[in-house]
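Problem statement: downstream parser choked on a complex file, so we are re-checking the raw output for the protoporphyrin IX containing FE run. The parser issue turned out to be on our end (a line-ending mismatch), but while we're here, posting the original submission so the record is complete.
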Amino acid sequence: MPSRYHPALVVLHWALAFCLIGLLIAGTTLLAPVANDDPAKLLSFRMHMALGGITLLLLIARVIVRLATRTPPRHHTGNALLDRLAPLTHVLLYILPLVMIVSGIVFARASNLPDAVFGAGPMPDSFAHPARAVHGIASTLLIALIALHIAAALWHQFFRRDGIMTRMWFGAR
Ligand code: HEM
Ligand code: HEM
């Protein structure tokens, strides 16, 4: 079994981390608290929706590369609960971004937002759609999960010193 993830998967891991953290910060600070008729929101909408689309493509590529390449053996900490928690959080770190993208597209389309943002259509007053609530709740869950994931990575790196970070970096496999 290889000692690291495939380099393409490493690139996709870090590119997606960058996109997702950017979308979460910008969504929470530049979109949710700002009224839709604020002219400054138009650029934020454009960037958010375009980056959301790029994120979808990266996520699809990541799933394909993940299924097509060999991965390092599952890491054991010696704690049965932690050893079960790790793969569960990893699966959720694939699923929640997908929920964000699908819900975003659903409520944006339902309120004709692409027309307003990329064309000349009228801007909706607000987003009264159940998928808007899903987008908000999933974003909170994703932020919590990423915080847990980063805390776990730092714990491995600085307390257990088991070198797990090198598995998600480049080098001989
Ligand atoms: C949006 C942010 C992030 C997401 C969505 C994410 C997602 C994931 C997923 C799904 C895996 C499992 C890969 C697989 O087996 O398919 C993984 C592994 C990993 N992530 Fe992240 N990650 C993020 C940010 C970070 C950050 C900031 C760090 C470091 C501080 C990090 C460090 C790692 C490491 C070291 C692994 C390899 C774990 C192992 O060897 O089993 N990740 N990440
Ligand atoms: C992984 C991808 C995405 C992430 C992480 C993300 C993240 C966020 C976050 C954190 C918010 C603020 C939620 C709140 O505080 O209630 C937000 C709002 C929003 N998102 Fe996304 N988003 C993603 C994809 C998309 C996509 C693909 C679209 C549409 C095509 C979209 C459309 C919107 C819109 C229109 C808002 C603003 C809603 C408002 O002003 O009330 N998002 N997003």
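For whoever reads this later: The mean pLDDT is 96.
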